[in-house]
Specification:
Elements lengths: L3 E6 L3 E4 L5 H17 L4 E6 L2 E6 L2 E7 L3 E6 L6 H16 L14 H19 L4 E9 L5 E2 L1 H8 L6 E9 L3 H14 L5 H13 L9 H7 L10 H11 L12 E8 H9 L1
Parallel strand pairs: 1-6
Antiparallel strand pairs: 2-4, 3-4, 5-6, 5-10, 7-9, 8-9
Helix pairs in contact: 3-6, 5-6, 5-7, 5-8
């Protein structure tokens, strides 16, 4: 579970900035400053009657802090928290391409857990239908000839060990960009979820993708993802990966004390709908 859970509507007070709340104050102050520097004010610091407090901005979503605190900011509505959360979940689904069914939303599930559950569920669909693999060239020192002998390297490595031969050959492997991105997302989300079902699915994903490498250059990996008929089933899951790792997507927020944060500019979205 979370060490602390804070839920508020957009533009409403989140918490007091005080010595009594020193640890939370330090974490939220750093995040508010990061947001201000970035020009996306998900959380701001306000002063009223000589006292300071943290307030939510126009952005709605969640921030999971390093101490286990979960901050959830919901759209401002007149019909209560449940409908506000449905509105936020619907916006997330619109962005990632997932069909949102309001009646299927667990009223006890906060937005972060819903976000994770969609990713975990869609990833498991991919695994059950079969992850995509690709041919990759690999060089190895083997005991039998398999592929092409790399003569110069073979002499350098095996002048003494004549029982071995250095070759280059192709292997059919799931270690491709789409699966590397999914593995990175599953590893990050498994660290923050408190939902046992989602955690089970994420761990199963990581186990299944055990031979897949972790990505080291996310921009390069996204550049290798091509939309084809075969990759269509990856669409929703990769859209969520972009939210998590692609800076150009504009939904991920970072900070010294942030484990994971996703916020959407609901004010802009509402203005677009009115227009």
């Amino acid at each position: 579970m979370y060490t602390r859970y804070i839920c508020a509507s957009a533009n409403e007070k989140l918490a007091d900035l005080s010595e009594e709340n020193r640890e939370l104050t330090e974490m939220l102050t750093e995040f508010a400053e990061e947001c201000a520097a970035d020009g996306r004010k998900a959380i701001t610091i306000h002063r009223k009657n000589g006292a300071k407090h943290f307030a939510a901005g126009e952005y709605c979503g969640f921030a999971r802090l390093t101490d286990g605190t979960l901050v959830e900011i919901l759209p401002k509505t007149k019909s209560g928290i449940a409908d506000a959360r449905k509105e936020l979940c619907a916006e997330f689904c619109r962005r990632c391409g997932f069909t949102f069914v309001p009646s299927a939303l667990d009223p006890e599930m906060n937005f972060m857990e819903f976000f994770i559950s969609v990713f975990a569920g869609e990833t498991m669909k991919i695994i059950k239908s079969g992850v995509l693999s690709t041919y990759a060239s690999r060089e190895e020192n083997m005991t039998t000839v398999h592929g092409t002998i790399m003569f110069a390297e073979n002499i350098r490595r095996n002048l003494v060990h004549r029982e071995r031969v250095y070759v280059r050959h192709d292997v059919f492997t799931p270690d491709r960009a789409e699966n590397r991105l999914i593995k990175a997302a599953a590893a990050r989300l498994d660290k923050i979820t408190a939902n046992t079902h989602s955690s089970h699915l994420l761990k199963e994903t990581l186990s299944y993708l055990d031979e897949v490498r972790m990505p080291y250059d996310f921009a390069a990996e996204f550049g290798k993802c091509i939309n084809t008929r075969n990759t269509k089933k990856y669409s929703t899951t990769l859209n969520i990966c972009r939210m998590l790792f692609d800076k150009n997507e504009g939904t991920a927020f970072s900070g010294k004390y942030i484990t994971c944060a996703q916020f959407f500019d609901m004010h802009t979205q509402s203005s677009d709908k009115k227009g």
